[in-house]
């Protein structure tokens, strides 16, 4: 009788093989917020992982969104030139604008209207001419107001290379132009010239109306354009009413304006108590 065969040491049949269990691929190593891919995974195959990707560190507390970036518009740069010449140019630009339009309107009215509608007197008399001249001055002031509001300049401002700006970059508008012109009599009492000489170069009317008077954007072409308009306006009465009536109107200025000036001087002496 033979003894039974000796079983294997592992207690399994020799023909039965245990399945091989592959170890799981190693997880990516995280160090200091950076994922580092391993070189190889299971069975010696490389693991395709994207290159090192930064990982944001956890933030404790409430996370506030970033503040929106607001850009402040740059303040426009104005050119004023020599301060004294700038102030003188501003003064004479206004005076000559009023004089040019007044002479133009009064010459036409004197030549075309025999009887002044305000006084009912002939325009070739002192009182009739005074009323006609007053109409011309009123229209000239309205012209300066409207031209500055919609165009930013006038004929003589162009000739002096000046322009009225709205610092906000828009048109000056009737409101701003009206305020700066209503305060012009106050500025003419020396204070306007002093304020215009200061670094801001803004008289009282500019400060109240929110305007700035500086060099024209046309630069060197502004005086040329201004003088073209001056010649046109000065020559229009000769074209509209003819040379004879235009010269007669100019003669009326020489005849009646000295009387107007004398009365203005007399009024000033009476107002300030000066001897006549």
Folded structure, characterized:
The chain has 276 residues and is mainly α. It has a domain at 83-250. The chain has helices at 83-112, 126-150, 155-159, 173-182, 184-188, 191-197, 204-209, 221-240, 243-271, and strands spanning 29-31, 34-36, 162-165, 212-215. The strands form 2 sheets. Strands 1-2 form a two-stranded antiparallel ribbon. Strands 3-4 form a two-stranded antiparallel ribbon. A hairpin with a 2-residue loop joins strand 1 and strand 2 (34-36). Helix 1 (83-112) runs parallel beside helix 8 (221-240). The longest helix is centred in the middle third of the chain and has 30 residues, at 83-112. The radius of gyration is 45 Å and the shape is elongated. The model has no long low-confidence stretch (mean pLDDT 82).
């Amino acid at each position: 009788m033979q003894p039974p065969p000796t079983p294997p040491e592992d207690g399994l049949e020799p023909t039965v093989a245990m399945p091989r269990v592959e170890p799981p691929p190693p997880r990516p190593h995280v160090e200091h917020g950076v994922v580092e891919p391993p070189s190889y995974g299971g069975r010696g195959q490389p693991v395709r992982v994207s290159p090192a990707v930064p990982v944001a560190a956890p933030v404790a507390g409430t996370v506030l969104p970033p503040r929106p970036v607001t850009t402040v518009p740059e303040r426009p740069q104005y050119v004023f030139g020599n301060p004294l010449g700038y102030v003188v140019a501003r003064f004479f630009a206004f005076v000559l604008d009023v004089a040019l339009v007044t002479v133009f309107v009064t010459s036409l009215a004197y030549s075309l209207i025999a009887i002044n509608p305000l006084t009912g007197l002939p325009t070739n008399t002192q009182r009739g001419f005074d009323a006609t001249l007053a109409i011309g001055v009123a229209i000239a002031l309205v012209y300066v107001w409207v031209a500055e509001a919609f165009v930013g300049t006038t004929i003589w401002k162009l000739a002096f290379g000046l322009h009225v700006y709205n610092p906000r970059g828009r048109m000056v508008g009737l409101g701003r132009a009206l305020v700066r012109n209503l305060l012009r009599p106050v500025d003419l009492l020396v204070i306007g010239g002093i304020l215009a000489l200061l670094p801001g170069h803004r008289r009282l009317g500019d400060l109240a109306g929110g305007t700035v008077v500086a060099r024209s954007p046309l630069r060197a072409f502004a005086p040329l354009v201004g003088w073209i308009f001056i010649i046109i306006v000065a020559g229009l009465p000769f074209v509209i009413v003819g040379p004879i009536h235009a010269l007669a109107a100019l003669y009326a200025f020489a005849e009646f304006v000295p009387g107007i000036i004398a009365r203005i001087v007399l009024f000033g002496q009476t107002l300030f108590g000066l001897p006549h």
